[in-house]
Amino acid sequence: EFFIAQVRLNLVRLQRHKSSRGVVFEKVGDLFNDFYNHHLPFELTNAQKRVIKEIRNDMGSNAQMNRLLQGDVGSGKTIVALMCMLLAKDNGFQSCLMAPTEILATQHFVGLTELTKEININIKLLTGSTKTSERKIIHEALENGTLDIIIGTHALLEDKVQFQNLGLAVIDEQ
């Protein structure tokens, strides 16, 4: 009886997932190509290239993508996430990266800001300790679309956080 209930539940989930439309990222644009060809500080591994290609294919379909990317610390999961966020920007969408702690969110923010300093992309950090005045600026930039990537903690889940055009959410689960 329990087994039958599990099977039914999984069928419902599968059906819901099939009918849920994802946003289509139709192109690999200038931002992605410029970063990849001129600003990437190291050569991607074959595994990273393969995963980015697989994700690109998923993002090019209209199916909703749910994907788990596993790897050791330092294996390059963050650069894969950044490349995908650049794809989102090239297609007119915003991205968010949520981390479980303020320390990790700040590390992501510092790292991604450093990696993207030579390209035209707007990245901000939102955590529980972000000052009220800065929060207002971030909220406005998210809503009017001038903020491309927001990195933060569960503060990203607050009702006041409204995106103009969110296309990709990355969750770092440690």
Describe the structure.
This protein has 174 residues and is α/β, with parallel strands linked by helices. Helices cover 48% and strands 11% of the residues. The protein has six helices and four strands, in the order H-H-H-H-E-H-E-H-E-E. It is globular, with a radius of gyration of 17 Å.
Question: What key phrases describe this protein's structure?
Answer:
single chain, 174 residues, alpha/beta, 4-stranded parallel sheet, 48% helix, globular
Question: Topology, pairings included?
Answer:
Blueprint: H1 2-19, H2 30-39, H3 46-60, H4 77-90, E1 94-98, H5 102-115, E2 123-126, H6 132-144, E3 149-152, E4 166-171
Parallel strand pairs: 1-3, 1-4, 2-3
Termini separation comes to 35 Å
Low-pLDDT segments, ≥5 res: none
Strands in their spatial order, largest beta sheet? 2-3-1-4
Rg value: 17 Å
Shape: globular
**DSSP helix fraction:** 40-55%
Average pLDDT score = 87
For the biggest sheet, the summary is: 4 strands, parallel
Beta-strand share of residues: 5-15%
Question: Number of helix segments?
Answer: 6
Briefly characterize the structure:
With 174 residues, the protein is an alpha/beta fold. The chain has 6 helices and 4 strands.
